[in-house]
Specification:
By secondary structure, this protein is an alpha/beta fold. The protein contains eleven helices and 14 strands. The two termini are 31 Å apart.
């Protein structure tokens, strides 16, 4: 339905995106992941016709949109990372303004506004000034604006950044419902791996302008099929134990948190006795050592060497 074909975008001497190929099928939710500076926003700008690629093509229903983006723009909804609302207007005034940009008017526009306010849970706040809204309410209205013209495709660029858990869950459930009930096609970027796990059918992972992995969630996890993720828990850590783990040649990656250390090792390596010995030598008492199946976060760290929020 929508695809980038060998798309490259350069800014002076910097290649933000390098020969990127990605596609989105009708009715699926696709996740686009990458650390900051990976090229995600540039890819989204090209897909949404806001920015032309330096080379390559952008296609909608197998037709290039570079010379004529109008057919794509009619069916596309865009939820930007930064909230794009007029804060001195009410919720309904914002929806009326953006509705007119879509050439909607009269009873049709009013009916659609009522539907959208109900969908995003803001019917009781329709006449409230937006600058008095919480962060979560602004995010929901931002989504409402993008849905006003019944788009077939919606691009959501980190739509839950900086909001409370209740609003975040509301947004995730709304996206899921739109996809299931209306077959709406969604491209979703997020800094929260659990959101991608919950929503997405397929995933693309970018780093430094390159596409480094793509596939279903299970296919992505298979990248680490030859490795085990081990969770080590204790009430505290000391420098001696952490140094022992970091110096072990069999450990591929290490993530240290307050009461949990996560390591990735080859499947054939039995680390239990070695970890117990390290803890004993460091004078540390471990609470548990557990082997877990690889997660998307594990794969992401493996591929990029960075956490998603980096």
């Amino acid at each position: 339905m929508l695809e980038l074909v060998d798309s490259t975008k350069s800014f002076k001497k910097v290649k933000a995106v390098k020969k990127l190929n990605m596609f989105i099928e009708k009715g699926e939710i696709v996740g686009l992941l990458g650390p900051n500076g990976a090229g995600k926003s540039t890819a989204i700008s090209m897909l949404s016709s806001l920015m032309e690629p330096t080379s390559g093509d952008v296609r909608y229903c197998n037709k290039s949109i570079l010379k004529n983006p109008a057919p794509l723009r009619k069916i596309l909804g865009m939820v930007p990372q930064e909230i794009a609302l007029y804060e001195d207007l009410t919720a309904i005034e914002n929806l009326q303004f953006f509705g007119r940009l879509y050439r909607m008017k009269g009873k049709e526009l009013q009916r659609k506004i009522d539907v959208i306010l109900e969908l995003i849970g803001l019917t009781d706040h329709r006449k409230d000034i937006v600058k008095k809204f919480s962060g979560g309410m602004k995010r929901r209205l931002n989504i409402g604006v993008a849905l006003l013209h019944d788009p077939e495709v919606i691009i959501m660029d980190e739509p839950t950044v900086g909001i409370d858990p209740q609003s975040r869950n509301y947004i995730l459930e709304t996206v899921k419902r739109l996809n299931e009930e209306r077959q709406m096609t969604v491209l979703y970027t997020s800094h929260y791996m659990e959101e991608v796990e919950f929503l997405c059918d397929r995933i693309y992972i970018m780093d430094k302008g390159n596409l480094i992995a793509s596939g279903t969630k299970q296919e992505i996890k298979q990248i680490l099929s030859a490795e085990n993720t081990i969770s080590i828990k204790a009430d505290r850590w000391n420098d001696a134990f952490i140094a022992s783990i970091e110096s072990s040649p069999t450990i591929h990656r290490i993530k240290v948190e307050e009461k949990e250390i996560t390591i990735v090792v080859p499947k054939e390596v039995n680390m239990f006795s070695e970890l117990a010995k390290m803890a004993e030598q460091a004078g540390l008492e471990l609470r548990s050592i557990d082997i877990n199946s690889p997660t998307l976060e594990d794969v992401f760290l493996h591929l990029t060497g960075r956490a998603l929020r980096d």
